[in-house]
Every structure is written in C-alpha cells, then in structure tokens.
Amino acid sequence: MKRILHALLAAVWFMVLCSPIMGLQIQPDKSVIFLWERLAALGVGIFFASLLWQWYFASQRSSFSLKMPAAVTSVAALLKEPKARRTSLGILVALLLLIPFLPVIGSIYQISILISALIYVMLALGLNIIVGLAGQLVLGYAAFYAIGAYTYALLTTYFGFGFWICLPIGGVMTILFGLALGFPVLRLRGDYLAIVTLGFGEIVRLMLLNWVSVTGGSHGISNIPKPGLFGIELDIQQATVYLYYLCVAAVIVAIIIITRLKNSRVGLALQALREDEIASEAMGINLTRVKLSAFALSSAWAGFAGVFFAAKTSFVNPASFTFMESAMMLSMVVLGGMGSITGVTLGALILILVPEYLRAFADYRMLLFGLVMVLMMIFRPQGLITGERRKYRISALEGKEGAA
C-alpha cells in the first residue's frame, strides 16, 4: 500500500511540475488550451514506472552495490533517501524515462527552455558545493558563469576553437579565478564573505562592460558558433536538439560526481566545515585546502554552464550576468534544500520552468511566484528536500565499554 501511495504522489507531483510544459498550449491570440490527455498519459506512465523501480530497488538493495558499476552505484546512493524524501524517487525515474523523448514531444522553443533549465541545474549544483556543503555564503556566483561564457565566445570567435576544446578550457579558467578569489577570503565568513564575493561579481561584470576592445562592451559578442557533430555543421533545429542532449549528459555527470564528492573524505570535510569551523580545525582538517577545493570545484561547474549558455544563445553581453542571476541561483539552492542534490535539482527546474510557462498569465505570474516563495519560507524553510545528515549508532560501543 505504501508503494502505491508513493507512486501516486510521484505521478501527481510530476504532472503538476510538467503541466506548464505538456499540459498548456498558448495560441497566437493568447488563449490557453489545456491538453489533459498528455498529462493523463504522463501520470499513468510515471505511476507504473515508480512502482517498478520501487519493487526492483527493494529486491536488489542488499547486493546492489556489488552488482552495479561505480557510476550506477553513485546514482543509487543519491536515491537511497529516508521515507520523507522517497517521493522524489519516482520523479527522478520519470525524468530519466522522459528525457530521451522530450525533443520529439516538444517544440524547438520548449526544448530551448529545457536547455536553459538544465544549465541552471548545473549552476545550482555547483553553487550547492560551496553554499550547501561547505556553508560559505557566496553572492557573486554569476561572475564564474560569465567567465565560462566569455571564454567560449572569445576562443570560438577570435581563434576558431571548437566546442569540445573550449569546454575544458572554460572549466580551467573558472577554477583559476575561483582559486584567485579563494585565497584572499580564507579568513572571512558569513556576511563579510558574502560582501566580498558580491564585489567580485560586480568587478567581473564591470570589466566585461568596459573592456570594449576585447569583450565588445555593452554590445557583447555575437555570432558565436554552435557546437557541431564530429565536424558536421547542424542547422538550428538539429543544433538545439544536439545541445539539449549534451546538457542532459552534463547534468547527469554533475550529479554523479557531486554525489561521490559528498560521500568522499573531501565532502565530509566540507560538511564538517559547515557545521563548526573551529572544531573542524581542531580535529585536524586543513581549512585552507578544504576551502580552496570548495571554491575550485564550485566555480568549475559555473564555467561549464557558461560554455553551454554561450553555445545556446550565440550571443553574450554583461547584462546576462548581473547580481540578480546570482540571487536566482542562490534561491534555487535554498528552495530545493541546501546540501540536497535532489532538492537543488528540483528547485532549479521549478524556478526556471514554472515562471517561463506562466507567461500567458503575465499580470499574475510574478505575484503567484512571490507568494509561493513566501509560503516556502514560512512553512518549509529547510527547502523541498532537506540534506541528508549522517547518523551513527554508538550503542554497541557503549556496551563494550560497560563490559570492560
């Protein structure tokens, strides 16, 4: 009975989440048509997929890690959550089943919106490393996003480099800037760290705005080439679908890597730093190394996302990387649940997809959006899905000490 209830909740939640994408069709006269058949088919499919996955996961739980490769066990570790978070299981399974067919179901415009959502998922996952795991408040994360985007734009426009060459270079560039920011702020925390990172974000934006000879200033850089497929140039529709699958692959890789990072020694050190910096140092944790690692790893994903953004839009300018972008990314982490990979992913998807597909209700959508955020702050300040905290049983140790 519990499995049926969980599957039903997953189906209903996913239908609500996808209703703006698959359940609404806006006509040229701004009228809205509700496509109930699509939503019903989606809900039935998710219901049975969730039941099947719960049955398989329960039957294989004991020997799952021995039979599956490391990449799959990373996803299993992500999905192995307490009962309060088990409804997200069906959502993730449904996403994995639905992802390959979205380019067939949706239009090019809808696929473009999904690419934007996936880019913000990458940004939210990267910011979750420094904010959610390490507990360091960063308000200038859009600066790393801009560095990655301009790296791709400059290398492709002026030097003719390809996408696959620019992607790692964009990550390396943001890592270097992350380390450059991390060194001066090693002793800062809380509000002081937030102010410094906010200043860093504005410095990068103003540099891009005023360095006209290189960045184009407020006019930006246009005609940025889109990624090709093994040297073959693609038309706009093919390039959009191709970039969509690349973003899906990048998000999956990010989830796997960050999940393994969270459960590694570095991840545990980051979480210890978040709980108590002084106690962490007293326990022998190298705070300098841990903080710099957090800045480097977090900024790398912003750089990758920036490369995908420049490849998607074929145009970049400083107006795309303001403080509001950093605030939006931080809102995704807070809404989803700081430290929770599943929650941050859902938070990013909700904050991008829901406002975008409520454009037909332009007079009310921001009001509803703000109301939902306020209600979340009042009734669920920990976010949609709270981050998992390790629990240790010490009863056996106490028994041994008593016997001794």
Residue runs with pLDDT of under 50 for 5 or more positions: 62-81
Largest sheet: 2 strands, antiparallel
Structural class: mainly alpha
**CATH-assigned fold name of the largest domain:** ABC transporter involved in vitamin B12 uptake, BtuC
Notes on the protein architecture:
With 404 residues, the protein is mainly α. It has 19 helices and 4 strands. It has helices at residues 2-23, 36-59, 64-67, 70-79, 87-98, 102-105, 108-133, 142-158, 163-182, 190-210, 212-215, 236-262, 265-275, 277-282, 287-313, 323-336, 341-356, 365-379, 395-403; strands at residues 24-26, 32-34, 221-222, 315-316.
How is the topology of this model organized?
Elements (H helix, E strand, L loop, with lengths): L1 H22 E3 L5 E3 L1 H24 L4 H4 L2 H10 L7 H12 L3 H4 L2 H26 L8 H17 L4 H20 L7 H21 L1 H4 L5 E2 L13 H27 L2 H11 L1 H6 L4 H27 L1 E2 L6 H14 L4 H16 L8 H15 L15 H9 L1
Antiparallel strand pairs: 1-2, 3-4
Helix pairs in contact: 1-2, 1-5, 2-5, 4-12, 7-12, 7-13, 7-15, 7-16, 7-17, 8-9, 8-10, 8-15, 9-15, 12-15, 13-15, 16-17
Which key terms come to mind for this protein?
mainly alpha, 404 residues, ABC transporter involved in vitamin B12 uptake, BtuC
Write a short abstract of this structure.
It contains 19 helices and four strands.
